[in-house]
Amino acid sequence: MTTSNKSISQSIWDFFCSLKLTMFTLITLAVISIIGTVIPQGAIPPEYLQTISQNKLKLYQVLGFFDMYHSWWFILLLILLTANLIACSIKRLPGIWKTITRPVTTMDDGLEKTLSNLTIIMTNGDSTTLSNRVVSILLAEFAAPVITENKGIIHLYAQKAPWSRLAVYAVHLSVIIIFIGAIIDSLFGYKGFVNIPEGNSVDKVMSRAEKEINLGFAVRCEKFSVANYPNGAPKEFKSILTVLENGKPVAGYNRVPVIVNDPLTYKGITFYQSSYGKLGDHEFTISDADGHSTPLIIRSGGSAKLPDGSGICLQETTPDISQFQAGVSGPAAQVEVHLPNGQNKTFIVYSDNPAMNRMNLAYTGGHLLQYKGGEEFMYTGLQVAKDPGVWVVWLGCTLMIVGVYAAFFMSHRRIWVRVENGIITIGGNASKNQGGFQLFMEKLVTKLKHQLPLEDNK
Amino acid sequence: MTSSLLFNITTILYLASMLAFLASIVNRTKPFFGTAGSYLAYGGLLIQTIAIGRRWQESYILGIGHAPLSNLYESVVFFSWTIVLIYGLLDLKYRYRVIGAFVMPFALLGMAWAQLGMKSGIEPLVPALQSNWLLYHVITCFLGYAAFAVACGISIMYLIRENHEKLKDASDQSIVATFPGSKILDDLNYKSIMVGFPLLTLGIVTGAAWANYAWGTYWSWDPKETWSLIVWFIYAAFLHARITRGWAGRRAAWLSIIGFAATIFCYLGVNLLLSGLHSYGG
Ligand code: HEM
Questions:
Q1: CA-to-CA distance for A203 and A195, rounded, in angstroms?
Q2: Does the beta carbon of B208 lie under 8 angstroms from any beta carbon of chain A?
Q3: Of the candidates B58, B92, B120, which is a domain's last residue?
Q4: pLDDT at residue B3 in the model
Q5: Which of A73, A125, A446, B114, by CA, is between 20 and 30 Å from A165?
Q6: Which residues in chain A are contacts of B124 at CB distance < 8 A?
Q7: In this structure, are B235 and B138 located in the same domain?
Q8: pLDDT confidence of B170, banded at 50, 70, 90?
Q9: What is the mean pLDDT of residues A279-303?
Q10: What is the pLDDT of residue A1?
Q11: Could you give the ipTM of this predicted complex?
Q12: Residues ≥6 apart with Cβ < 8 Å to B120
């Protein structure tokens, strides 16, 4: 071929139609996707930053490696894939469409040469009788044939599942449909998060991009609970949620249990059980040797500093210690103190037992630490998602699965027969599973021979 | 009999099956060995099926009933089962027994590792796994992986056989001469991937559906998800390789082997080496 008269637009078109490009894109996507599974994505953990050099960090940031699946070059590859897909389809579909809708119904010499399943049966009898026999066998064993008569030659053509040739295009289309669904979601949907303390309600959530989003209604957490297996492993995290419109519960959305793997959806917004925790303020007092006392407030799970500078973390609290420890009662808190010598010490601070608190003086820099009590509630952590494109994605996925199945396991099978002067020529081909079709043809020809007055039967 | 004992018997049967297949390659005049290899594999498959059912039942007796697909041990056992199942189907359909010599080692390796190297206790299901999607997702993924394991075994055979066919003085007496011809192996490779690819596709889709149902994102580029997509890209490339001139044969066989290596990384490497949402770390 002379390349000189090939225009630039033609070369670009050929480039996008090429299956080499397909191989390149698919393999490149496979290889570069590895990067994001090795380098952390999104919020970068500080421990990771310590393991790499400043230069490397800068390089990774410039290349977008910390959010690589949304980087311009990854998106560009996906666009390349899509363009390749569309171009290939535009190039090939018209031909395929013609094969399906306007089949070649007569077998000429050119076609005959391309058929690997070709049998010639020498027989005698007039063409109409012979062809009627062949027709009845094709009807019984295969499909109704189209009959064409031309200058005393009778042509038969029968086919099965011509539409299966479109399956590959359905698969390719499904890739694009899935992309469309994902784009709809990223334009019109959001992912968010919200913590709701028991008894409270919220009407806003925080999106991943740290934007506040108005729900347009409110959600109240009535209760949150954790159930455990006998061995202590968690069995169930459950929030009881109520949807409120104008402050009133919505019928059907009142006190709905939401557990992991069983979310709540209202007006296209879905709430997923995701995490939980405790909220509350706890009051301590710290007294020096003279009896001067200062209050210290620590939040549930929070930490503070003691007068001598050592850190203190609040681990757990109970309104009544007697259920855990015999001989003492009243509120109590378990704390961990980071001692100046670098060690950690965990102990219990009581509210109604100064004598026992005195035993901890050594860990608190000589100051007496006492627990006053506090209020505590559970809060539930919910993922919130609005994904208007998700149905498009599922549609694409369904089409892909049906399409892949049809592309592999359904085959367009065609049979041509020519009846001419007592000679029957029969051949066919299949778009898939040629081996199976070969066997089928052999059986068909055997049946045919039994029905015909054959020369070699004599 | 306890499931654990039945699994041990399975392991021994798979070992015997593999040895029989190896013997059939060396003793090419005695078809007995090949037949024995298949029957031992089928016997193992049957016992393993009973064992998996038994383990399921045992979990109910413990009061924490769930399908035996919930941790690394159970998944490795199931993986072995699917490999032998896919091999069995291929054997029934195409009757190329020797392929067993290159496929049974994968199944044996899985069972031996599970039985000798892993804790096998039945544990309760954590909340994240309490869903029927677990079943659909794991079954489809592993059937897909198993088809890829079979394809990988066939590709290795292909490369050996094709090398042999290229030799000028290739001898009919050599061990490799018992292998099916390279054209047939190439076709069987394609057929196995033809089974595996739709199953993997279904596995990824059910995984996405589950993720969407459990935490509201069908795709979050978690390392496991990403690796399953990498595997999917590789096999998509394999499928297109066949329609691209110059890519069938050797390169396709290599793609199939690389695809299975990526599959194994997706299954084990991600859990052992990378961090993420999937909890099969054992
Ligand atoms: C870069 C984008 C792609 C292009 C340009 C492309 C192009 C093609 C072409 C031209 C064919 C042959 C059709 C025929 O035989 O007439 C084909 C087959 C096929 N494609 Fe794609 N494709 C692309 C991506 C994909 C993807 C992402 C999938 C994933 C499911 C896929 C799945 C298939 C399947 C299953 C077949 C049938 C293969 C077979 O019959 O063995 N393709 N593709």
A1: 11
A2: yes
A3: B120
A4: 86
A5: A446
A6: 229, 231, 233, 235
A7: yes
A8: low
A9: 86
A10: 47
A11: 0.90
A12: B4, B7, B73, B114
Compute the average pLDDT of residues B69-98.
92
**Are B238 and B160 within one domain?**
yes
Nearest ligand 1 atom to the CA of A26 is: 1
Distance in Å, CA A170 to ligand 1 centroid: 10
Q: Which of the two residues, A5 and B82, has the higher pLDDT score? A: B82
What confidence category does residue B279 fall into, taking pLDDT thresholds of 50, 70 and 90? Answer: very low
What percentage of chain A exceeds 90 in pLDDT? 47
Considering only A49-53, A353-357, A427-431, which range has the smallest mean pLDDT? A49-53
**CATH number of the domain where residue B18 is located:** 1.20.120
CA distance B138 to chain A (A): 16
Lookup result for tokens 């064992």: B51
- B197 with B265, same domain? yes
**Residue A90 region by backbone torsions, left for phi larger than 0, else alpha for psi between -120 and 50, else beta:** alpha
Instruction: Using alpha carbons only, give the angle A35, A39, A43 rounded to the nearest 5 degrees.
Output: 130
Residue B43 has pLDDT above 90, yes or no: yes
Is the domain of B61 the same as that of B156? no
Atom of ligand 1 nearest to the CA of A81: 1
A235 is written with which tokens? 């069995």
**Cβ B226–A36 below 8 Å, yes or no?**
yes
Among residues B120, B154, B183, the one where a domain terminates is B120
Summary mean pLDDT of chain A: 88
- Cβ of A173 closer than 6 Å to ligand 1, yes or no, is no
Chains A–B, number of C-beta pairs less than 8 Å apart: 109
Q: At which residue do the structure tokens 């050797």 appear?
A: B250
Q: Does A191 contact B205 at a Cβ distance shorter than 8 Å?
A: no
Give me the percent of chain A exceeding a pLDDT of 70: 98
Q: Measured in angstroms, how far is the CA atom of residue A59 from the centroid of ligand 1?
A: 36
Max avg pLDDT among A101-115, B73-87, B210-224, B244-258: B73-87
CA distance B255 to B192: 13
From the CA of B238, how far away is ligand 1's center (Å)? 10
Spatial neighbors of B25 by CB under 8 A, at least 6 apart, are B98, B101, B175, B178
In which domain, by residue range, is B23 found?
Answer: 1-120
Provide mean pLDDT across the span A403-432. Answer: 92
User: How far apart, in Å, do the first and last CA atoms of chain A sit?
Assistant: 56
Same domain, B51 and B151: no
* Residues of A in Cβ contact (< 8 Å) with B221: 36, 41, 69
Which residues on A lie below 8 Å from B126 (Cβ)? Answer: 233-234
Which pLDDT score, from 0 to 100, does residue B259 have? Answer: 96
Measured in Å, residue A105 CA sits from the centre of ligand 1 at 28
| Higher-confidence position of A129 and B106 | B106
Q: Give the span between the Cα atoms of B51 and A304, in whole angstroms.
A: 55
B227 touches chain A (CB under 8 A): yes
Question: Residue A4 pLDDT more than 80?
Answer: no
How far are the Cα atoms of A216, A283, A297, A298, A431 from residue A303, in angstroms, in the given order? 36, 12, 9, 6, 71
Confirm if A68 and A41 have CB atoms less than 8 A apart: yes
CA angle A141, A146, A150 (to 5 degrees): 130
Query: How far is A429 from chain B, CA to nearest CA, in Å?
Result: 18
* In a shared domain, residues B139 and B253: yes
B176 shares a domain with B190: yes
